[in-house]
Specification:
The protein has helices spanning about 5-15, 20-25, 30-45, 60-90, 105-115, 130-140, 170-175, 205-210, 230-235, 245-255, 285-305; strands at about 50, 55-60, 90-100, 120-125, 145-150, 155-170, 195-200, 220-225, 240-245, 260, 270-280. By secondary structure, it is of the alpha/beta class. It has 3 domains: about 5-85, Arc Repressor Mutant, subunit A (Orthogonal Bundle); about 90-160 and about 270-305, D-Maltodextrin-Binding Protein, domain 2, CATH 3.40.190; about 165-270, 3-Layer(aba) Sandwich (D-Maltodextrin-Binding Protein, domain 2), CATH 3.40.190.10. Strand 1 (about 50) and strand 2 (about 55-60) form a beta hairpin. Helix 10 (about 245-255) crosses helix 11. The termini are far apart.
């Protein structure tokens, strides 16, 4: 076949804009030139790709099939172009994914360190839940993702980075009910009706339920908060308890003045933060360097939490 990447790009624009004039404008060419290229593509495909109407166009059944394959081809082309730029040394990029319970706390320091190490590096960041990041990673839309391990997804390799311990978070009045080293201060002894967690779908919710020996059907557990920031303000105001990762402790204590944290006396529960990549990805020194950079930043944050003199962070 003699179709071109340019023709596929024009057809993609036409499918998105549903109008020849708008598609031509989006592609920065004249409308007649775009029409000629679409006609040529239709000739190659053996049929019409769009229904031409007075003010818009609709994809034909053939057009829908061609569009789906065109998107795959254009996606692969973009990856090839990016690889070519990186290998030429004129431009390098990194597509990095992080889950929401990690990104706000870890990302500023990581980006600053990456910027300091390589001013030419273009970093694209995506914040999403674990299953979305893993799907994007498998599809080649991300280079690496920072998530809580294990992920147990075929075709991916996990590299552990650091341990992020869980603290008990609540108001000062609620936490004062627990004496230091009290046998009651255990995750599994927390009343389900007093436990507040992120909405279902967050891996932190799954981890907290496991640590507390509870499941989604445990009566009274409130799983409605969409972010750690919301959860912090709720428990700071006296609405129950939650488990707070050390990674978030410093920032959330600053953001929610009434929030207090207490460490569990021994065998502190934790999650393992790791870097995930495809097993088919060619690996140079960049991956090890990135892992070490994120590991150092993560350990700096959690160690700061452990050594904090702020009484609200370690009652």
């Amino acid at each position: 076949m003699a179709f071109t990447i340019r023709q596929l790009t024009y057809f993609k624009a036409l499918a998105e804009q549903r109008n020849f004039g708008r598609a031509a404008e989006a592609c920065n060419i004249s409308q007649p030139a775009l029409s000629v290229q679409i006609k040529a593509l239709e000739s190659e495909m053996g049929g019409e790709l769009v229904e031409r109407r007075a003010r818009d166009v609709l994809l034909t059944p053939l057009g829908r099939e061609v569009l789906a394959l065109s998107l795959e081809v254009l996606g692969a082309t973009e990856q090839l172009e990016r690889m070519s730029r990186e290998r030429s040394g004129s431009h390098r990029s990194l597509s990095l994914g992080l889950i929401p319970t990690i990104a706000p706390y870890l990302l500023p320091g990581v980006l600053a360190a990456l910027r300091a190490g390589d001013l030419s590096l273009a970093v694209q960041v995506r914040e999403a839940r674990t299953e979305q990041l893993l799907a994007s990673l498998v599809a080649g839309e991300l280079d690496v993702a920072v998530v809580a391990l294990p992920v147990e997804t075929s075709g991916l390799i996990e590299t552990p980075l650091f341990q992020d311990r869980f603290l008990l978070a609540g108001s000062e009045a609620r936490l004062s009910r627990f004496e230091t080293d009290s046998p009651m201060l255990k995750p599994e002894t927390l009343e389900p009706s007093q436990l507040m967690l992120l909405e279902d779908g967050h891996c932190l919710t799954d981890q907290a339920l496991e640590v507390c020996g509870k499941d989604r059907n445990s009566a009274g557990i409130n799983m409605g908060a969409s972010s750690l920031g919301t959860l912090s303000r709720l428990v700071a105001a006296g609405f129950g308890y939650t488990l707070m990762p050390e990674l978030a402790a410093r920032d959330e204590c600053i953001a929610a003045p009434g929030l207090c944290l207490r460490r569990f006396p021994k065998d502190e529960p934790s999650r393992t933060i790791g870097l995930v990549r495809r097993d088919s990805m060619p690996i140079d020194s960049w991956f090890d360097e990135l892992a070490e950079l994120i590991r150092a930043e993560g350990n700096k944050i959690v160690n700061s939490s452990r050594q904090s003199e702020n009484p609200r962070m370690a009652i």
